[in-house]
């Protein structure tokens, strides 16, 4: 078993109006000796924006904004912008998040050169109903029965006059182009999928998505496999490039008598073909165990969304019980060695 140190709570809600209900699920990126955290901030009424905090080293707060860095601007994000992740590709930061309008939750992108000014790129995942998805994805073979369970919205086609779409969340870019092309993970429950072969975002046309869903099974990267992830899985932190492959810290969910339990998990993907899974831990990397992970807005949650490396230590930032931000650390080399003992 891998030794994981729970570093404890890093950020909690404040009296500032934009984050007076909770803070959680931070994006993280290291630059020099500093770490930028862009986190989900929740205000009264469960409306989310993105807050900002700068760390010196992996754990010490240097500055923290008293106002939201990014707030909802468009109808499709009127209820909030949630669960950011961030990477830097060449000279541009790619900040992804989930936009929620009270009905649909869809992956969006904003880009920046300086982490101060952001240009909204809008929704970049498909906007498709379950019926449309199923007609395409199942046309060339069976798909997991759980896609029906999680995505057909109890057969309600519309809510508040708005068409119910498949929820497509956990949008996460790889931190560099592969063979000259952008790649990103996304998640239509219960599995993690990969979008490949996009040279530019304008390639993501309705025809692109039609072809994608016609070959949907080919783009499933990870499926629930072990007991701690049997209900569903989803992307966590942006992939970390190592000599052994892309290290992916993701979340796994299983049902219990007390409801769903969210744990942090780890896998390796092939460097040049990330559709290929190389290894996976057969047990969770860490699980809810302390009171601040067990009790909160949503109980029993460790939801990893950002990770950085200092020397040989991997620091994983995560939402704890959907109310606060915590950090866990482990030896990167030890984790990779353990993964290599659990090759697929």
From TrEMBL:
* Molecular functions per Gene Ontology: hydrolase activity
Pfam families reported in the protein's UniProt record: Glyco_hydro_130
Q: Does the keyword Transferase apply?
A: yes
Record key words, sorted: Glycosyltransferase, Hydrolase, Transferase
Q: Which Gene3D superfamilies is this protein grouped with?
A: Glycosyl hydrolase domain, family 43
Protein family (similarity comment): Belongs to the glycosyl hydrolase 130 family.
**What's the protein name?**
Glycoside hydrolase family 130 protein
